[in-house]
């Protein structure tokens, strides 16, 4: 989630954010299985082995993406005005080891639909 839930991302930003996320995941020897997002948040489905510390992966995903997006899209600086951060400090992570991937994908895809 973006800091203060600012509506920051356009489709162009999300496309680049997915590329950056895939690169960071590859560096951690993990797999980005699914990516989806809206103007103020993203959903990631990441396959990773137990040796990877989730907090370190999330910290790297947020740090690298924030830095690269700021460099490549200077117009995003307007959204950093209060705390000089793009992302909220919080995140949600859940385990879906027993759920079929198709069900998880369906859940992620439905997150952006209006109720």
UniProtKB/TrEMBL annotation:
Domain Transposase IS200-like stretches: 1-111
Molecular function as annotated in GO: DNA binding; transposase activity
Name of the protein described by the UniProt record: Putative transposase
Pfam family, one: Y1_Tnp
Gene Ontology terms: biological process: DNA transposition
């Amino acid at each position: 989630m973006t800091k203060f839930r600012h509506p920051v991302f356009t489709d162009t930003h999300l496309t680049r954010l997915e590329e950056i996320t895939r690169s960071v995941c590859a560096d951690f020897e993990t797999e980005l299985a699914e990516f989806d997002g809206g103007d103020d948040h993203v959903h990631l489905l990441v396959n990773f082995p137990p040796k990877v510390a989730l907090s370190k992966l999330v910290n790297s995903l947020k740090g690298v993406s924030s830095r690269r997006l700021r460099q490549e899209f200077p117009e995003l600086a307007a959204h950093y005005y209060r705390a000089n951060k793009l992302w909220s400090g919080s995140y949600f992570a859940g385990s879906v080891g027993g759920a079929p991937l198709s069900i998880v994908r369906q859940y992620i895809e439905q997150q952006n639909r209006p109720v």
